[in-house]
Amino acid sequence: MTTLTQHTSTAPGKSIIEKLNVFTALALGVISAVVVWRLSLAFLPQDGEEVRLFSREDKITLLSMCAWFVGFMTGIGALVGPMRWVMGKDLAHDENMFLAGENMGPKRYFRYTTDHKVVGIQYLFITILIFFLGGGLAMLIRTNLGTPEGGWLHAQAYNSIVGTHGILMIVGTIIMVTGPFGNFIMPIMIGARDMAFPRLNALSFWLIVAAAVPLIWGQFIGGITTGWSAYNPLAGQAPLGMDGYIMYICIFAISTMVAGANITTTVVKMRAKGMTWNRTPIFIYGTVASVALALPAFPVFFLSQVLSAFDRALDTSFYNTAGGGSGWLYENLFWIMGHPEVYVILIPAVAALMEMAPVFTRRPLFSFNIAVLGIAGISGLSVLVWAHHMYISGWAPLLNAPFMLTTELISIPTGMLFLVLIGTLWRGRIWMTMPLMSIFALLWNFMIGGVTGIYLSDVPADAFLHGSMYVTAHFHYTLMGAGLTGALASLVYWFPKMTGRMFDKTLSWIAFWMVQIGFNVAFIGMFMVGLAGQPRRVESYAPTFNTANLVTTIGAYTIMIGMLVLLHGVISSARNGVKAPKNPWQAKTLEWTVDYPIPLENFDVLPVVTTDPYGYGKAKS
Amino acid sequence: MTDLMTPKTPQWWKKSDVKKTFILWIICTAVIGYVGVEFHVRNMVDPASETMSSVISLMRIFTWAAAPVAGLVSAMSLTVLTSKRHYGDNPPAEADHEIRNSPKTAAVWVVVSGLLCLFALVGGLVVLQHDNEAILDSKAIQVNVTGQQWVWNFDYANGARSEDLYLPVDKPVVFHITSVDVKHSFWVVQMGIKMDANPGYITETAVTPNKIGVFDVRCAELCGLLHAYMQTKVHVVSQADYDAWLNAHAAMEAGA
Ligand code: HEM
Ligand SMILES: [Cu+2]
Ligand SMILES: [Cu+2]
Question: Is the complex ipTM higher than 0.90?
Fold first, then answer.
């Protein structure tokens, strides 16, 4: 603190750390990109006659995007720590406190701040932003599909909107629980002062910001016309916007790996004294399972896109059959990431609801062991099922049966999660709040998502359903109906700890019902057209599908209004909601033992844990 | 059901609760099974092949198999939701028990879900096996299918070529599928078959159309700008009509 005043008083000598923020980062990023762009324009050799279309432009685009990335990360201060370390002068305590954002007010949200609570809020902000961007695109899609003939949007724009919506939402759902709540709440819940690697924590957040720009940039140079899965060889012939997708994924994958290593280490090494694994809250298990699953998955995603970039810019043939490669290689790499990734999304959301279930029923969590087993079982199996996305690719027909087996086995641990939730609700005291109702909503939606998953896992049925709107409806039931429901409940549940104020009750109910009803209307309609034979990712369809598509569009608008109500709730409650008591839900996890505002290092005296946090019920009260 | 009443933990259940849940379970199972089956069967296209018929019966069977599980979750949820609810800003009193688990329930739950899995697996394998046999049928008609942005081309054994698919009724047909540019997916909707068209590879699928009529072929894999319009018709006709059409088209190709 003394150093802080000292530094500000000697303004001209401000150290480099204090000068960097998001604005210097943007400036340096843009300057680097422009410089590299001009240089590569000037010096890169022209394409020869025999070289494929776009190759030179691809090189220029990718180089400029890399320059943006390096410039931005340098400008935000990601390199300060490592550079100082290389020079043999590690950061002093005061400097670390400055980086943690001590006494800095709102400015710390615009810097490379290491305090996990700041990072959590930053993640919350960017998650909301992503959902509203992605949601806006969804409304464009649904409006276009309100009538069968298409053409309201240009076909290329439509394809690009579908792809961008998809990848935005996938990234949004990946970070929606582990980002805001995994960063803000998790360290306090385990009784730690911060994450194991606070600077990596800041790094993981700012990497996402750095990643966003190439994606937006891509929209203006042809768009992402391949859908979120970016299959090759289609991606090889897609416009330059594809390079934006590639950079986005590569940078985001680094962010996920960094966050995964950080969160895992934090949980393993920094739990409070006495918090044995049996006393560790289930939400912590969910968070760790999620990031630990991402740890092997995202390097594969990264790699798949690097090879894609090579094919585009350097004329290699990883995915090009004529040159000795194969599109099936891409599909395999993509889904080796892709299936674990869906559980990266789902597990923390379900685990968050498991954490809330005892609180809102005032009874212990039912079968903690089964919950842990279920999470572990899903995580383990989920790396063995990827080829259910490739049953009809023709890649390896003989492997269909074994992959059908592993996929169907996943419903056993999934069933365990159901058992835990329903078992906790059973004979509890029902405290009617939005998080509690979200558990019921999850049970309902995830049941539909899971059962339709079983149909899809069946090879003959999938030969009919694959590539149809039915698949789209299935994964929205799981990602949105189950995942997002859990995330919204988490928002309302932990809002008091994050903002010091209660989330407006009425608004939370209105938003809940509009989103849930709109959601079920929208995606029931989508199941119908899928069954009737409408392929996915189409901008026009046969007139017979019109009614159900219209139903879906109406449902989609209902969701949108519900989400706007929720946004209004977030803003108005954070500004002038009812001041929250320390422990408004009378919960027993550690985050409810600290006062708001939570001090920089959370606890004056580190807590000692003697029981698990589920001691509700008669004998204990 | 009886297992929920694990006798060791008498506070956990009240007889009235279990009775209510049991009745709700029967009702929910019936409703979910019936509505689920009707929802799928009514929305699915009318089958034009044995393959599609078996997909429809698979959906029927799977839905009925899933209904008791979904019914139980729904019934328990409804029982909970219709029991005493507490509104307000402060928590309700603590529950009157502190039950943390019920190993028997868990065991039953896991065994039952395992059996259901096995059931789904076997059902799928049987149908799959049946479908695969068609590919090996030596009397089958062979058609080469080529996907191309954004049309389908069909080549027949006698040299005929078309953009609409023509097939005789009740004859097994094997499709050899490929693509000249990007990945497409060859979907004959009413026949319940689909196979990706990959550039540089030939993939196979087979079906026996069993109904005369005109059906839909759609592309089921995003393949660029006009993917939505990459569709055509399949005309299933009598053997005589088919032969006539085939000869006329072969002559046309030869003349061209
Ligand atoms: C309960 C067990 C589940 C089973 C058995 C299952 C099964 C399947 C199968 C077989 C497919 C491939 C369908 C096709 O393309 O033809 C699929 C697609 C998909 N599933 Fe699931 N699923 C389950 C749960 C989930 C969950 C929990 C999520 C996400 C949270 C999820 C997200 C997805 C996504 C995103 C796709 C499609 C991706 C695409 O093609 O773009 N699924 N699922
Ligand atoms: Cu999957
Ligand atoms: Cu297509």
Answer: yes
